[in-house]
Amino acid sequence: MAAELTDLQLMHELEPVAEKYINRHLSMTKDWNPHDYIPWSDGKNYYALGGQDWEPGQSQLSDVAKVAMVQNLVTEDNLPSYHREIATYMGMDGAWGNWVNRWTTEENRHGIALRDYLVVTRAVDPVELELLRVEQVTRGFSPGQNRQGDERAENLFDSIMYVTFQELATRISHRNTGKACNDPIADKLLARVSHDENLHMIFYRDLSEAGLELSPTLAMQALYKILKDFKMPGFVTPGFRRKALVIALGGVYDPRIHLEDVVMPVLKKWRIFERDDLTGEADRLRNELALVIKDLEDSCEKFEAAKHRRLEREAKTGRSISAEDVLATAGTLTLSRR
């Protein structure tokens, strides 16, 4: 059996693959302008310019759509941390650096467009939105934060495999949020954002697959480590657990979606449970991964039962989680409304 590659060797071997997939990406993607997807004619001045500050009755979005849109936005707001992380593991030279900058350029549009839409349409409190942005970016993000203890991302595989699942999950979350908005403009905007996320996922997914061929044990170590305790980058957002609950109950992103639309399609694409080149440690980790999948299935069933009970209770009592209560989670942070 050939010796496993070091991280530097892996980066060297994968650089021509990265360049190939960058060229493919550039041939598939289409640049777009965030301002084209904003209903500017719906906007009006806020207090500082002699207008009116936000009031809850101005929002036309459902509670689920508001929470999901804000969570999606503040996740996108943390782009400086994401740029730093992928630059750390990919470097800024050659094809790797070209991808880091191109990916960052495309991702930056998402936050611009989502914020403009929410502020112009007065869908949510812009002051709370700014509080959340400041808190989110201050907290930052590292892929290692999505695992227990002090374990951090250690190599290129940890980075590109994590982002493969994260990009696919983000694509689905944006797409389902667009549908939940019940607004053709929001739906069109989030479909555009989802398309970008899908192309980013394809880059990372196929790059990871090429690495899996080169160094299966290192790849399986990263894959198991990521999926056994996967969390989206937005989990550092204040009040994340309550927001995730609203989003899950609303069918935007829940355990079943995570398993069937995110985890399993990628594992099937990589043929994880059909490969004949996984031996020793890699094969052992594949068996452990099968147990992780079983645990995810159990979690789906438990969540679905709990969701059914909760919705029945809310129907009887007429009380549900308010979006305003969920979004007002900035704690002791203060920011003047004037």
From TrEMBL:
Q: What is this protein called?
A: Acyl-ACP desaturase
Identify which cofactors the protein needs according to its UniProt entry. Answer: Fe(2+); Fe cation
The record ties this protein, via CDD domains, to: Acyl_ACP_Desat
Q: Which GO terms describe its molecular function?
A: metal ion binding; stearoyl-[ACP] desaturase activity
Q: Which InterPro entries match?
A: Fatty_acid_desaturase-2, Ferritin-like_SF, RNR-like
Coiled-coil spans are 275-306
Its source organism is Mycolicibacillus trivialis
Chain residues that bind Fe cation 2: E107, E167, E197, H200
Subunit-level organization = Homodimer.
